[in-house]
From TrEMBL:
Its EC number is 2.7.8.5. Coiled coil: none annotated. It comes from Mycoplasmopsis citelli. Keywords: Lipid biosynthesis, Lipid metabolism, Membrane, Phospholipid biosynthesis, Phospholipid metabolism, Transferase, Transmembrane, Transmembrane helix. InterPro entries: CDP-alcohol_PTase-I, CDP-OH_P_trans, CDP-OH_PTrfase_TM_dom, CDP_ALCOHOL_P_TRANSF_CS, Phosphatidylglycerol_P_synth. It is found in: Membrane. GO terms for biological process: glycerophospholipid biosynthetic process. The chain crosses the membrane at residues 25-44, 56-78, 98-127, 148-169, 189-213. This is CDP-diacylglycerol--glycerol-3-phosphate 3-phosphatidyltransferase. One of its GO terms (cellular component) is membrane.
Amino acid sequence: MKWKLNMKFNITKENFPNILTMVRIWIAFLLVAFLIFFGTEIYSDFNRFQKYRISLSWIMFVFFTLAIATDFADGYLARKWKVVSDYGKLWDPLADKIITIVALVYLILANWFNPGLVVLIVIRDLIVDGLRIQMARKQMDVKASKLAKIKTFYISILIIVTLLLNGIFLSSNGIPTNVENLYSTAQKALSIVVLIGLIGAVIISYVSGYQYLEKSLKHKQ
């Protein structure tokens, strides 16, 4: 099965899942560009940039959801077509980390995620990525564990839901006062739910991270 893209590059069953992984990385870079060029200025002046904040919120939601969709697609296709590669085992989780960190930073700017908890998640990911690279150099199995996959899925859903809530509440600007008060109360309540969810993400992250550390230490012995 082969589709010709041009004279120099062919998309095949063997490389298509890896192409999806690279697409996800490029989406992450695109979102980084949005944050760098628009994020800081947009969030420095709420009244002046309200429309842009709404646009950015939906851009983040759409692109992050698209990235997660490609994540599930490349994993499914790789298993279905039996073309799981070392490249995919290494870069697929790294692509997840990049896109997730971008979304986490955005949700800090949007005042949905606690910076301290996000820092804990990022530190864990950096440590695990370092371990995975070392394990790959030693030709150890760097395939993500079941708990690590659950952690990725859990955080992805948490981010998608929070991005959706962020877009909805930002888009509600200008509604009647009585409804606005209801929205404000709902937002505060949902912020607490999101905080609890983020704490859960930290716990799952470190438990799954310990599994990588344990595996690495066993190999040294």
